[in-house]
Amino acid sequence: MHPLTEPDIRASFVNCTKGEAKRLPIPKPLEATPWPDLDYLGWIDQGSPEHAYLVTSWNDRTVGITLRTPPKGAKSAIRTSVCALCLTTHSSTGVTLFTARKAGTAGRQGNTRGTYICSDLACSLYLRGKRRPEIVQPSETLSMDEKILRVRVNLDRFLDGLMAESPA
User: What element of type H or E holds 26?
Assistant: First the structure.
């Protein structure tokens, strides 16, 4: 991912108002971000952990989305789960359902889309071996480039659904 500035990040959000984008927390310092190791920039709001943010390249432009997680009181009976983006296997707390309000009219009507993503939004670091999940992973024969492409394809699919208008 190419380095972004705070104004780039704030201007990229498509599923919130400009005022909301202006007020949301930006990870600091951006200069310390490992840009070459990222397929997207994702972070959790430390002051409000049910809010998260993801910024990436989509259709030749930078797109940011606001995400929500279920209330922390919701318990899961699942022992292991798999991230829908990077396919990293985690214990039950390592993957979270993130939902996002759709962009445009569909979002203003309350339509959302969700997917299961690594709880710390560190898919890029897991697939590159920069961060280790808590459980042993199944072996894969894909090259690193193929794994990166898989994350991009899965993320683009999710974003395609967020950006699509709902049928009338």
Answer: none
